[in-house]
Amino acid sequence: MAIAMLREGTDSETLFRQSLQKLLAVVRNICQSPENAAFRHIPKDNAHFHADLGQYPGGHQCLLAMGFKELQQGDETQPRNVFVLEEPDLSEDLDAWSSWFDELKELQSLVESKL
Hints:
single chain; mainly alpha; Methane Monooxygenase Hydroxylase, Chain G, domain 1; 5 helices; 3 strands; globular
């Protein structure tokens, strides 16, 4: 499990909890504003992401386990790796969107239970 990798990858319980709090903030923001694409788009080279979560083994895996995909954006001269969580189209498939959102809420509860 990705959270277990994160626990092993941090040097202390304090760092593990700080990383989980960052992960929880990501999930909470998406749950509170699922329509806001900015919350579902995390540049891999973002300094805050790297400091709080991305630098640890298991940090990237946690995002991937949540459904984020690692993509390359930009052009060939300035490619940028980002983590993107795609939202199903609510107007086209209410059931898919509802399942997606329910899974996010379950992930939020799971992360909260690990703190």
